[in-house]
Amino acid sequence: MANPFQSFSSAVGEDGTVKEHKQTFDELYGEPENFLEVDVVNPVTHGSKPANMYTDYEIVCRTNIPTFKKKRSRVRRRFSDFDSFRRVLQHETTRVVIPKLPDKSIMTYSQRFNDDFIEERREGLEKFLNMVAGHPLLQTGSKALISFIQDDVWDKGRFL
Asked: Which CATH architecture has domain 32-158?
């Protein structure tokens, strides 16, 4: 396979014209060297009485970054888990500004389980998690990130 990162001098012919390198399909569309894909999907509301109802969200992760334990994972997390995860990240690193979560609901308790509100919150949680997972320092150096998106049980106590 031709080296796509050849030096400029080797990319220029003796007559001064630029040698053209046509990229292969794999070079154009193949899996990147390191990637981390995270989606927040499938919100499910649990409980039948308003006092014990809550919604959790599925986090789907796909990666080839060596520091991650699994290449693919699916876990479920509540909003309160995202909140504690954010606090852990703030404690874990002072070099990165951790993004905000979607606002906590000031709606009545029953309105928090409205489909529109749940979808809006899901989108906000996904945006938050993608910003965190997309940060190079957190991607490769945060044990809390790996645990949050891959461990079946999120134990914030391990990190505080």
From this structure: 2-Layer Sandwich (3.30)
Tell me phi and psi for residue 58, to 5 degrees.
-90, 130
Q: What is the pTM of this model?
A: 0.78
Tokens of 56: 């959790």
Distances (CA, A) of 16 to 19, 23, 34: 9, 21, 35
Rounded to 10 degrees, what is the CA torsion of 32, 73, 139, 124?
100
Give, for all 160 residues of the chain, the pLDDT tens digit: 455 555 444 556 666 666 676 777 766 666 567 889 999 999 999 998 877 889 999 999 999 999 999 999 999 999 999 999 999 999 998 889 999 999 876 666 667 788 999 999 999 999 999 999 999 999 888 999 999 999 999 999 998 7
